[in-house]
Design a protein that fits this description.
- By secondary structure, the chain is an alpha+beta fold.
- Helix content is 33%, strand content 23%.
- The protein has a six-stranded mixed β-sheet with strand order 1-2-6-3-7-17. Strands 11-13-9-14 form a four-stranded antiparallel β-sheet, covered by helices on one side.
- Helix 2 packs across helix 4, helix 4 (126-139) runs parallel beside helix 10 and helix 6 packs antiparallel against helix 7.
- It is elongated, with a radius of gyration of 24 Å.
- The two termini are 38 Å apart.
- The structure holds zinc ion.
- Residues 96, 128-129, 159, 187 line the site of zinc ion (ZN).
- Zinc ion is lined by residues 96, 128-129, 159, 187.
């Protein structure tokens, strides 16, 4: 079996016909590139350097300038490549190389081996978001020699753990004086242009109490109970935002949300716990100020929870530390990159989504960004993640037009 068919079984017919018809003779077809990328198990906690080396090697043939920016341990890297003529303007195709873990998920196939079945491609990262990256890499050779403007590829690490890697890539671009005029982030939107998403701030809240035998509970400071009171206040804020807004009906969840995701504390029932910690997040509408909510939370704690704790044990109290931040995205609908994506997708939709992406960090750096990529967020992060071949096909059509535009 030729390399490009590996892992794709034969029951797919119509779509596979498309796949085969669109697979260039040189074996750099879209599906085989997706297969190659899925084969790198780039879970966020692990290294992505093998994938980065593979991409860099491929780009070497196309006279690309490749810049790498690393994490502190140099186990992961962002790759930023410049292709075609160097100079002002030019457009970015961007995606993250990392994927979420498969631990404790029940998969019917090996998540790191692409399997084609019933018009779908299965594997971790097929929707989120190696199909977009794979399509861009596979199609590049057809256009690179004819580019009239710079094409940039921005492939990042640690997106799934809070859009961490892209910050270093953007800082590096500023240092290098690279100023693209627009960016398409290929997160799964079913190829619908998305110009706004919520922002997110996440926090760890650590509670310090005072331990004692539980028979003497009133002489101690129960950290679990103090944490529970604080979590209950977050829930109260969440209800208020749900019931009173502000609202933006363009979002599926039309208001800012507050959510507590984990809590840890206590060792045994007969010991008053002296430690507890919980993680919470605020996902806010572009116009909402998340810091105002966090300030409200802090002052509630200072006014209503800590005094009772400190009356018993002075060092008791709360510490709240921000863990990550994704700005909200709110690209103006009349921006050139939005016009272009509208034209190439033949829609005038301006989607708004509740999840965060790296697009907002490009936008904050002065690079207008649109989110538009194949597959559905509904399939992301789940066992048996897949992408419809029809979506891969739509992505290929879009990227061919996009690349052709850079050639004109
Ligand atoms: Zn993603």
């Amino acid at each position: 079996m030729p390399d490009r068919e590996a892992g794709v079984d034969s029951g797919v017919s119509a779509h596979l016909c498309w796949v085969m018809a669109n697979t260039p003779e040189n074996g750099t077809g879209v599906v085989s590139m997706i297969e190659k990328l899925i084969g790198f198990p780039t879970v966020s906690r692990d290294s992505n350097l093998e994938l980065v080396d593979f991409v860099r090697e491929r780009l070497r043939a196309h006279d690309a300038d490749v810049r790498l920016t690393f994490d502190d341990e140099r186990r992961k890297a962002n790759l930023f490549a410049t292709l075609g003529p160097r100079g002002p303007g030019g457009l970015v195709l961007s995606g993250h190389t990392d994927v979420v873990p498969v631990d404790a998920q029940r998969w019917n196939t090996d998540p790191f081996q692409l399997v084609g079945r019933d018009g779908r491609l299965y594997g971790r990262g097929t929707s989120d978001m190696k199909s977009f990256i794979g399509a861009a890499l596979a199609l590049l050779p057809d256009y690179v020699a004819r580019l009239n403007r710079p094409l940039y590829l921005a492939f990042t690490y640690d997106e799934e753990v809070g859009c961490i890697g892209v910050g270093r890539l953007i800082e590096d671009l500023a240092r290098a004086g690279v100023k693209p005029s627009g960016c398409v982030v290929g997160e799964p939107t079913m190829m619908t242009p998305v110009i706004a998403h919520k922002g997110k701030k996440s926090y760890r809240c650590s509670v310090r109490g005072l331990s004692a035998h539980s028979a003497y509970a009133p002489t101690a400071v129960n950290a679990v109970e103090a944490a529970a009171e604080a979590v209950a206040y977050l829930k109260k804020m969440a209800r208020r935002l749900r019931d009173s807004g502000p609202y933006d009906r363009g979002f599926d969840i039309a208001h800012t949300t507050v959510h507590t995701g984990t809590i840890r504390g206590g060792t045994a029932l007969n010991i008053v716990p002296h430690e507890c910690s919980f993680d919470f997040e605020v996902r806010h509408l572009p116009g909402d100020d998340p810091l105002a909510l966090v300030d409200e939370f802090r002052s509630h704690i200072a006014k209503n929870i800590e005094p009772e704790m400190r009356a018993i044990h002075e060092p008791a109290g709360f510490e709240i530390v921000q863990m990550s931040e994704i700005p909200a995205l709110d690209t103006r609908a009349e921006t050139a990159i939005v016009d272009l994506v509208h034209e190439l997708t033949a829609t005038h939709e301006v989607g708004r989504v509740s999840y965060g992406t790296e697009a907002s960090q490009f936008q904050r750096a002065g690079i207008p960004a649109v989110v538009c990529g194949p597959g559905s967020i509904q399939q992301a992060h789940k066992p048996n993640e897949y992408i419809e071949l029809a979506q891969v096909e739509a992505c290929e059509r879009f990227l061919r037009k996009f690349l052709e535009r850079l050639c004109s």
